[in-house]
Amino acid sequence: MMETSESLEEGLIPNPPLLEPTPMITNEIGNGGGMSESDFSTTPAVVFSTLVAICGSFTYGCAVGYSSPAESGMRADLGLSVTQDVWSLYLGRFSLGIGLAIIAYVIPVYVAEITPKNIRGAFTATNQFLIMSGMSVMYLVGTIVSWRALALIAAVPCLLQVVGLFFIPESPRWLAKIGKEKELEATLQSLRGKTADISMESADIRDYTQTFEKDSKAGIFDLFQQKYAYSLSVGVGLMALQPLAGSAAIAYYASYIFAAADLLTNIGSISMAIIQLPAIGVSILLTDRFGRRPLLLASTIGMGSSLTIIALAFGLQDTHLWNDATPVLVYIGIMGFSIAYSLGMAGLPSVIMSEIFPINIKGSAGSLVILLHNCSNWIVTYTFHFMMEWSRTGTFSIFWVICAAAVAFVAFLVPETKGRTLEEIQISITKRLLK
Fold first, then answer.
1. Taking the model in full, what pTM does it have?
2. Is residue 419 left, alpha or beta, with left meaning phi > 0 and alpha meaning psi from -120 to 50?
3. Where are the beta strands (DSSP E) in 126-251?
4. Could you report the per-residue pLDDT of 326-339, keeping only the tens digit for each?
């Protein structure tokens, strides 16, 4: 195993033993009586553990969408100016973001590590469904109740998650990392079902973990090595481009954009709340059928087209030509952006990020990616008001340019991870680097 580890880590031989695919055990009589991972059914343990894990995502969505319906009420009750509003929202999001940053990474990683490969994409993407549900609740209920009541509503899922955490198992891959093999077997058996043959999967997890753990440093500065360059570039690129392409601006300041277009904010907010959930539901259904990359491409192209419509609408407003069309075009653009974003770019970057990092750097790499994601989020959140005062057309034109870069990034760099175990994904990435 040491020879395999050294070869894999340093790239001294072209095809290390671990990189050779191992035949899966089938469940047919006469073929070993085992069960391949793709044959595992969705067990109650996996469903319950996933539900508990993603409970916090609802609060995350509430926090993301909170300031859009609550912004005007907070400003009126607290007597804030636009500049004060920007700073107060920044400070509030910064303090809240510490906890949310942990949730944003840990939840998809945990769900990806406990689910079989044939349902991993859909279950991990369900995390985004809860986030969008939280946002939708804020948009809908925010038109009726006060901003203080919204804050209390958002706290309920957190309490449910705290209680549920005492009843869900630890990740099998984490147990392998810390050397608890008996607990690994027991946890994997409970997740896959009492009658499932887990021998092949547990062996793959142990071998993979040992290979990447031996002689591997996982500090934050150890990330910047050639063997981690590809996976780190994909993770950072996707998670940074997500808010920079305009999603943060529309999520946080939808009511402000509608007001700038002389459109009733309640109509726009309610429409966003209604339209996002079906779109993310379609994404969940299609993730394991068509793959991650096709959905991401469709999503980014749709976002770019919608940003073009919004920029055109504000351009007409600036030139006082066809002013009556501005509210309609902005409404169409934001609805189109919401659908396209929900279809792929909303949840799939987290899915891919939970799949591509080796076990020995998941913690440090995930921390770095989430940090850069939050920095990008903060940049958009802080500068958006000032950018809109500078030029509304220019603001959405800049978002369009970034969105075009995201299309190219997805097309040429993002790997397809559909239908492969986490171990197979890492082997594929390692092979790519050794070429």
1. 0.78
2. left
3. none
4. 899 999 999 999 99
